Amino acid sequence: xxxLMKNIVIGSGPAGRLGSLELGKLGExxxxxxxxxxxxxxxxxxxxxxxALTDITKFIDTNNRFNNHGFIKSQxxxxxxxxxxxxxxxxxxxxxxxxxxxxxxxxxxxxxEASIEGEIIKVNNESFEYDNLLIATGARPFIPDxxxxxYGLTNKDILKLxxxxxxxxxxxxxxxxxxxxxxxxxxxxxxNVLARSKFLKEINETxxxxxxxxxxxxxxxxxxxxIKEAFKDKVLTENDEELEGIPFFATGRTPNSxxxxxxxxxxxxxxxxxxxxxxxxxxxxxxxxxxxxGYQLTPVARMEGITAARNxxxxxxxxxxxxxxxxxxxxxxxxxxxxxxxxxxEEDKATIGxxxxxxxxxxxxxxxxxxxxxxxxxxxxxxxxxxxxxxxPSSVSDVAYLSYLMRENYDLDDYxxxxxxxxxxxxxxKIIKNMWL
Length: 437
Known about the structure:
single chain; alpha/beta; 3 domains; 23% strand
């Protein structure tokens, strides 16, 4: 037997942290257990690290552009070591804030590696019973089983590097691979991307071509390329081609579900099986975030954690995954969304493609014709948006706005009342009001 806690949450990434916060706001007793650092992969070794480094590469890109235009003459001296130092300082500040936020609603946060023994949770030689349990243990980088895999870096190693690698081989062809390629190419690395099938399958071909030509032009992309062996400073492809450079694995994620193995039902890929209320097959046991698979995105993990928390507090809630907006954090953002539920026939589809709009962050790109590109697929019959692929400095906010219209099933006529803030949401005006309505 152990101390009774009404709600125990294991893992403080976006799902567990927001789930705990929601429970606390609802007046529920919460024990939040974290193995390492609060805020999980996102803050400590994932998207926040990528965004921090991408802020630097955007500055470098802008500096180069201004130099080329001739009205600023400057030479940058970039210290990767100092960048890492300041990222770590910022992480430490945000960890304190995240913990204070959870504690401000009465939650108890403890650090240690938890184990599940039926209705007992053990951590730091203490035992706790629970009424409700939320497993939000996240995921870790998946490393394929190839010879020499121990030489490969992953996103967990970005802040452990002493300097920018001279040459880098990124193994993988998805969003993370592209973001890492953009960062180190801009910082001066010679970068190869080796995709097992197609590169950037998540976006349409026109958008992908723009990315390759205008955003990461110095990156060498190899499609349909498998790796036979990795070495400390090179890789060997299945065609016995040697490519110099440190290997970096961006080959997906694998769930941290070992804690729940034999306790709750797992899917074939070892993710925890849940329903739309984030319930597992065990009564009063929930799971949320990357450990459940699906969209491995911070906003989705937050949504799942909050959904689980509301159900744990007896406020019935279901999660919906329709029209999930996504982005690639590059020197210019690439954002996209698709309405998976649309049943539009081919004859009712209309696609409009337009160059990027000279909104915020775009003015000094006009001279080079690098303001981006947006392509929208409409359902003419039902007056809806089916799909958006957008490259522009404001695409993150633009696509978020538009995905909401799609998710709530608004007619495009309803968009006529939207009043944009010039120039920040001019893209919305151009795409919808000016071109369609």
